[in-house]
Specification:
Elements (H helix, E strand, L loop, with lengths): L4 H6 L3 E10 L6 E11 L4 E5 L6 H8 L7 E6 L2 E2 L5 H11 E4 L11 H11 L6 H10 L15 H13 L5 E5 L7 H18 L2 E5 L3 H4 L4 E6 L2 E7 L3 H11 L2
Parallel strand pairs: 3-8, 3-9, 6-7, 7-8
Antiparallel strand pairs: 1-2, 1-4, 4-5, 9-10
Bound molecules: adenosine-5'-triphosphate (ATP).
GO molecular function, one term: ATP binding
Keywords: ATP-binding, Nucleotide-binding, Transport
Organism: Streptomyces chryseus
Length: 250
C-alpha cells in the first residue's frame, strides 16, 4: 500500500496497516493478528493491552521489525519495512527502533558502558563514548558506567537496558512488560522515566503491559482481543483501563 499524502502530512513514527499474522498452517494455524491497523504519532506514549494471547507481543514485534506479518504492511515514517530484505531490515532496525524487555538481558561480565555499546559493536561500529554517556545520563545512571550489572539493583539494570535501547536515538522505543520483573515502586520509576523520555525528548514509545497502573502513564491505550483492536482510550486513568480490561476478561 502506498503511503498517502494525508499520512505523510500527519506524520507517524510507526504504523501498521491491516496486519495479519498467522503461526503454523492448516488446522494447527493460530491467527495471532487478524487485521490490525495502528499508528504511533511522534512524541506519544501508547500502551498495548488485552487478555493473554490477544496478540500484544505479536503486534509489538511486527511493528518493531522483529517479526514479519503474514499480510499487511508496517511503516517507519515513509519506509515500508515489512517488504525489506532481512539484511536491510536489520540495519534499519538498529538505527530506528529500540527494544526493552521484561528481562534486562545484560552481559554480566562487562561494564554498564560496554553493555550500552554492545549493539553498535556487534554491527561493527566504533563506540561513540559521548552518546553512551548521554544515554546513561538520560536514564539517571551518570557515573555508573564502570559498574557491572551485578552491582546494580533491578531497577538500575532496567535503566541500563533502556540506555542500550536509546543509544542509537531510535524513532520508536518498544517496551514489552518493562516493569514485569520489578517491585511496584521501582516499576513506577521506570514508567516515569519512559514518560519523561516522551515529554522531555519527544521520544515515541509503545509499551505492552498487563498492568492498568502502568497503562495510566500512556497517552493512549489500545485494547486487543483475539487478534483485533477492539477499543481505544485516550489519556486513560488506571481505573478506566482496569474496567475496560475486565470487560474483555483480561
Ligand atoms: N512463535 C509462535 N508460534 C506459534 N504461535 C504463536 C507464536 N507466537 C505467538 N503465538 C500465538 O499467537 C497468539 C498471540 O500471542 P501473543 O504472544 O502475541 O499474545 P499476547 O497478547 O502478547 O499474550 P501474553 O499476554 O500471554 O503475553 C497466541 O495464541 C500465541 O500462542
Amino acid at each position: 500500500m502506498a503511503e498517502t499524502a494525508t499520512d505523510t502530512a500527519r506524520g507517524t513514527a510507526a504504523r501498521a496497516h491491516e496486519l495479519h499474522r498467522e503461526y503454523g498452517r492448516g488446522t494447527a494455524a493460530v491467527r495471532a493478528l487478524r487485521g490490525v491497523s495502528v499508528a504511533l504519532a511522534p512524541g506519544t506514549f501508547t500502551a498495548v493491552m488485552g487478555p493473554s494471547g490477544s496478540g500484544k507481543t505479536t503486534l509489538s514485534h511486527c511493528l518493531a521489525g522483529m517479526d514479519r506479518p503474514t499480510r499487511g504492511s508496517v511503516w517507519w515514517g515513509g519506509t515500508e519495512v515489512s517488504r525489506l530484505p532481512e539484511r536491510r531490515l536489520a540495519e534499519l532496525r538498529r538505527s530506528r527502533v529500540g527494544v526493552v524487555f521484561q528481562a534486562f538481558n545484560l552481559m554480566p561480565a562487562t561494564t554498564v558502558a560496554q553493555n550500552v555499546e554492545l549493539p553498535g559493536r556487534l554491527a561493527g561500529e566504533r563506540p561513540d563514548r559521548d552518546r553512551v554517556l548521554d544515554a546513561l545520563d538520560r536514564v539517571g545512571l551518570a557515573g555508573r558506567e564502570r559498574h557491572r550489572p551485578g552491582q546494580l539493583s533491578g531497577g538500575q539494570q532496567q535503566r541500563v537496558a533502556i540506555a542500550r535501547a536509546l543509544v542509537s536515538r531510535p524513532q520508536v522505543l518498544f517496551a514489552d512488560e518493562p516493569t514485569g520483573a520489578l517491585d511496584q515502586a521501582t516499576g513506577h520509576e521506570i514508567l516515569a522515566l519512559l514518560r519523561a523520555g516522551v515529554d522531555r525528548d519527544g521520544q515515541t514509545c509503545a509499551m505492552v503491559t498487563h498492568d492498568p497502573v502502568a497503562a495510566g502513564y500512556a497517552d493512549r491505550v489500545l485494547l486487543l482481543a483475539d487478534g483485533l483492536v477492539v477499543d481505544e482510550l485516550d489519556r486513560p486513568t488506571a481505573a478506566q483501563v482496569g474496567e475496560r480490561l475486565s470487560r474483555l476478561g483480561g
